[in-house]
Specification:
Elements (H helix, E strand, L loop, with lengths): L2 H24 L2 E5 L6 E4 L2 E8 L2 E7 L4 E4 L16 E4 L2 E12 L2 E9 L4 E3 L10 E5 L2 E6 L2 E6 L3 E4 L4 E8 L2 E7 L7 E5 L4 E6 L11 E5 L4 E8 L6 E9 L6 E5 L6 E8 L2 E7 L4 E6 L4 E3 L8 E7 L3 E6 L4 E7 L2 H26 L1
Antiparallel strand pairs: 1-28, 2-3, 3-4, 4-5, 6-7, 7-8, 8-9, 10-11, 11-12, 12-13, 14-15, 15-16, 16-17, 18-19, 19-20, 20-21, 22-23, 23-24, 24-25, 26-27, 27-28
Helix pairs in contact: 1-2
């Protein structure tokens, strides 16, 4: 076999692999139809979401093939199912927020719970008036409630992390990051707890920006925070989505305007600097994805697609909820896969042209 034949074979294999990666995206999976489905999370081909059964709040967990219902004995059977509550999934474990009391009709109280793969443990017993934010990594649950950031594990119990007003906790690789400030509107200091000590990483928001103007998420892998703003212009309001990264240890910041168009629904998620959100296309809400460079529209139909969540392990995995509670899962190929297709096709075309020219002489 001559050298051209060898290279032709290699490029054929590369193109085939790349096309397979592209086809994975085309094969979007509808996991289940669950009219009660709300806030959800995805991790390495598995999905968890809030639902309800017989009027009680439950968690549904899809392990890649079957759906499991996780019951817990907290709420009274008369309580309605919880909706749009924080949930965090990691390696077969789930941290979530559940209803633990009702002080009046429709006036619920909430606590943080943890499922280790077999049993549910109630992490807090505070009956918070607002739903705490939660983040999970390897049994470490970070949560924010009443403007205070704490973490919990079955072996170490509960530890307070924020000294001032805290927000937006993120557990990742045995570490916790969060925003903190002396007032509710100045929570712009990014801090990290490594399991033994607290470290200040830098300012996570530009000066003059107050936190209460923004909705934001934080993911510890890239020390990043994301927010959007509706500017009160008349008419119409402008909707901005930004990505902001604080690098360690040099504490430099890189800002990206992800998508200056809207309106954006209050559904934003991020993993390792990759972002998904729901945005109106003028008719309904669709799912959009930013890979750090380009924006891709994931859905395009005539009904609302909401509650996106993302897990990025090259390629990205994205889940969302469509009309009627249809829970969808898809895999998005990396831009490099698309590039390899082009390289492979160009190489094959070049080979054929050279062969044709040689035969013509």
């Amino acid at each position: 076999m001559n050298m051209w034949k060898i290279w032709e074979t290699i490029f054929c294999l590369v193109a085939a692999a790349s096309l397979y990666a592209m086809n994975c995206w085309a094969d979007t999976i509808q996991i289940v139809t669950d009219p009660s489905a709300s806030a959800l999370d995805v991790y390495d081909g598995t999905v968890a979401w809030h639902s309800r059964s017989a009027g009680k709040s439950v968690i549904k967990y899809w392990n890649g093939s079957t759906v499991q219902t996780i019951n817990w004995s907290g709420p009274n059977p008369l309580y309605t199912g919880i909706t749009d509550a924080p949930i965090s999934l990691q390696d077969g474990q789930i941290a979530f927020v559940g209803i633990t009391d009702m002080v009046g009709f429709g006036d619920f109280r909430y606590d943080v719970l943890f499922w280790n793969g077999s049993t549910v443990t109630q992490v807090t017993d505070q009956k918070y008036a607002t739903k705490p934010k939660v983040s999970l990594w390897n049994g470490l649950v970070a949560f924010e409630a009443d403007n205070s950031v704490k973490c919990w594990s079955q072996s170490g119990g509960t530890r307070s992390l924020s000294n001032d007003f805290g927000a937006c906790p993120s557990a990742y690789k045995e570490q916790v990051t969060w925003l903190e400030g002396s007032t509710l509107t100045s929570r712009n200091r990014l801090n990290m707890w490594d399991g033994s000590s607290k470290t200040y990483l830098g300012s996570a928001l530009d000066p003059g920006i107050t936190v209460n103007q923004w909705d934001y998420v934080l993911h510890g892998a890239s020390w990043a925070n994301l927010w959007y703003l509706a500017e009160p212009e008349n008419p119409p309001p402008k909707y901005w989505l930004y990505y902001d990264e604080v690098n360690v240890p040099d504490d430099t910041r890189i800002d990206y305007v992800v998508y200056p168009d809207g309106p954006i629904h209050d559904d934003i998620d991020m993993y390792d600097g990759h972002v998904v959100w729901a945005k109106s296309d003028g008719n309904d809400y669709e799912i959009f994805y930013w890979d750090g460079v380009n924006v891709t529209q994931i859905t395009d139909n005539s009904t609302d697609d909401l509650h996106p969540a993302i897990y990025h392990a090259s390629p990205a995995q994205i889940v969302w909820i469509g009309q009627g509670g249809n829970v969808f899962f898809t895999v998005v190929p990396e831009p490099s896969a698309l590039l390899l297709v082009g390289i492979g096709c160009a190489a094959l075309a070049g080979r054929r042209i050279m062969k044709h020219r040689t035969q013509s002489k």
